[in-house]
Each structure stands twice: as C-alpha cells, then as structure tokens.
Amino acid sequence: MGVLRLFLALSVVSAHAGSNVFGLPVIPAPIAVNFFFIISGFYMAMVLNEKYVDRSTLGAFYKNRVLRLFPVYVVGLVIALAVSLPAIVEFFAQLTAWAKIFFVAANALIAGQDLFYLLCLPTVQGGCADAVALAINPPAWSLAVELGFYLIAPFIVRSPRRTFLFVMVGAVYLLAISFLVYPTPDLGILPQQSQLTLGYYFYPSSFLFFGLGALAYQLSKGIAKPHWWAGVLLFVVLVPTTITMPVWQPLIFALAIPVLFTYTKHNRADRLIGELSYPVYILHFPILVGINAYASTHPRLIEILPVGTLVGVASVVLGLVLHFTIERAAKRFRAMPTTADTLGNADAPTVIDGDVAGTARSAVVRRVVAAVLLLSIVAVPLTTVGTAAVAQAARTNVPSRTPLYLTDDYWQAGVSRESAAFFVSRTKANLEQFEPGRTVTFDNGEHRRIVETETTDLFLQVIVSGQPLDGTIVGYPHEFSVGP
C-alpha cells in the first residue's frame, strides 16, 4: 500500500514537471488524485469504525486530521513563499479587497482552495483572477477537498446505507454534469466552467471516489453486505458519465485496496514509504518552481537528470527529514489528550439550573450536523449544476453572438487556426441562424459569407469564405452578427 501511495504522488510530480521521475511509467495526475481519494475513503472508514467509534471521539478525530495535514502544509507554504514571493506579491496587488480576504483565508486555512477554480475572484482590472495563481501552493486544492470529506466522514462512513447513498450522490452528480455543454454560461461570480472544473476540481466530483473506498472497507469487513441490485444501479448511473478515467477503473481499484492493505499492513518498510507520499505530494510544486528558476541560469543541471527526477529526489529527501522531525512531533502531540478530544460527546450530562441538558444538546447537534450535510452534499452541488443547466437551456433559444470558447493546438478562442472556420453550440437557434449563403459580420468590421456548416452531437462548425480568421481578433469574447 505504501509503495502504491508514493507511486501516485510521483505520478503527480511527473505531470507537473513534464518529465519522468526515476524513469518510472506513471499515470495521469487526475487519475492519481482520484485514486488517492479512494485510498483516503478506505482509511477514514477504517479508523472511524475501529478507533473513533462513537461521538465522544469526534473531537479527537478532527484534531488528528488537522495535525496530520497542517504541519507539512505550512512547510510547503513557506517554501512557496521563499521561491515565489515577488510574483505572489505582484499577483496579490491585482486582487480586489474581498478577493484578497478570500486569498489569504483559503491559503492560510486550506479550506476553500478548490473553489478557486469555481468562483470568479475579481481583479482590479475587472476580470477573474487565475485559479492556479490564487493558490500559493497549487496542489493544495485537493487538501481542501480532503478536509471537506473529513468534516462529514464521521456521519457517513459508519453506516453502509449512508455510504452507498453518498456514492450514489457522487455518481448522479457526475452524470448530471455530463449533460451540460461546455463551457457553461457566464453567471458572474460563477463564470464559465469547463468539464475539468466541475468534474475534477469541484468537491462533489470526489464523493464517488471517497465513497467507493469507504464501501470497499465495509464490504471487506462484512459491515456491508453485497446486493446485486445496488451494483447494477451504480453501474447504470456510471456508464453514461464522463470522469477522469473509464468507469471500471475506480471500481476495480477500490475493490483491490482491502486486499493490498491486508498483505502490507505489517510491513514497516512499506509503511515508511507510504508516509512519504503526502510530503512528496504537497512539497513538490514549490520545489519544482525553485529548481526551474535555478535551472534557467544553470542549464547543465537538467542535462544531468530530468527535472521530474530532481524534484522527486528533493521531495523524498525533504519528506524523510520532515517525517522524522515535524511529523513525529505532531504524532506525539496528537496522542496527548486535549479538550478537543471531548468535542462531540454531546451525550455527556450537563447540569444547568438543576436540569440535565445532555439530551437537548445532543438533539441540537444532530440538527446542525444534518443541516450541514444536506447543504454540502446536496444543496450546493444541486444549485450549482441546476443554475448552469437553466442558464444553458435559456441560451439554446438565443442564437450565439460569439464563437464557443476553446483554445488548443487547432483552435484559438473558438476560431480555427488553419482554416476559415469557427464553431458554436449545436442548438436549434444556431442551426437556423448559420445557414449557407448568409453573412457573418465580426465586431472588427470584417464580413465573411457562410460557405458550409458541419454538425456533431454538440457543436456546429461554421465554415466561411476567404483566408483563415485570426482568433485573437474575432474569437471569443468578440461578438459577431449574422445577416442576409
């Protein structure tokens, strides 16, 4: 298990470095991160069913999770500030006042960093701040997702029924976003979203993976009993979805985790290797920035070893140092009883004016927890996807006024790099508007006659007369009009 966890961390290192690490074959970073979520779901189900078994241990669980993440995160934050401070200060100056508050709070507390990719944090120039630049240490967005899962895990993974419902909510969410057309409409604070944002960075996309890991633990211990109808239902929902990997891969991976854990749990070397996965994951990005900066003036450095290997070596070495110093000290502190350990013991009797208030307080706690769970698991994802879907439905009845944004090797802001063509969403209004023979007038005054249209299931490619168009001039967000 430990070797697997380190392999997943090094896969992310390789993706960010753009080169191999130790010459190892790796998997794509999004798959590696979601596999991490499955492993985390398995471990959280294990500790919450074997160690933190009732509400009286809730405070201890939360304290230990925070102390597990924050010490190494702070080290990564310090390294990132050391290697990128001028750029961070310059970027910070471009944010509006409330965006600065969100920037500082999220980077200090970890929580909320996944929302950098979802929300529009305004700049003084009037645009939206770059999501990657908002994070001082960009991989920390996944820690924000982890913290959210830790918050709700005690109320989910102790029950097979709630765990399966959690998995199904995640599967239905991924199915729902598969029906959206991307990019989604710009809704102000909720700007245009790509499928990667809603299907990877936004925290509801992780429910399926955390839940599968927890369900695998429960099945392996006999806490949950397999039901064929549940498997069929999950499979039917998952098949049409678009996720970061084929749908069978997370299912097989989750089922393999209990077996792998059983065969490696007593291996001390494997456990130590696994302990390095978190430091390597969270420290590698600022180390990569520092090595790239040094290599720009000392190019022979990367001629000796690939950047990925240099970053991997530095991250592993620093991870070992932190494991035997900061992490061990934090582990000893985690073992010490504190007042936080009694949080959640809502059933302990408390005498107020001669009356026992434990039962009343317990009821209040349950209501608050239920409200938080409904808000985070159901209301926020439903509102986000529903709002985008409603806005998109309204947009399909109105002809497009800009190319559909896409920039890659073939398209520049929705305009072909090689031919006189651009593309828009395939809607009834657009099919009626972009008829061959009509004229498109771009906002720079350029006129082009529509020669042909080509359709796919989602898009309408409009081929016009003349030389190739310049996407920087007529591409998204520049507008056009269509006339006879």
From TrEMBL:
Q: Which GO terms describe its cellular component?
A: membrane
Instruction: Give start-end ranges for the coiled-coil region(s).
Output: none
InterPro entries recorded: Acyl_transf_3_dom, Acyltransferase_3
Q: Which residues form the signal peptide?
A: 1-17
Q: Name one Pfam family in it.
A: Acyl_transf_3
**Please, one GO biological process term?**
polysaccharide biosynthetic process
Tell me the keywords, alphabetical order: Membrane, Signal, Transmembrane, Transmembrane helix
For this protein, what is any one GO molecular function term?
A: acyltransferase activity, transferring groups other than amino-acyl groups
Which residue numbers delimit the Acyltransferase domain? 3-322
Annotated membrane-spanning segments are 27-45, 66-85, 140-157, 164-181, 201-219, 226-241, 276-295, 307-326, 368-391
**Stated name of the protein:** Peptidoglycan/LPS O-acetylase OafA/YrhL
UniProt source species:
Glaciihabitans tibetensis
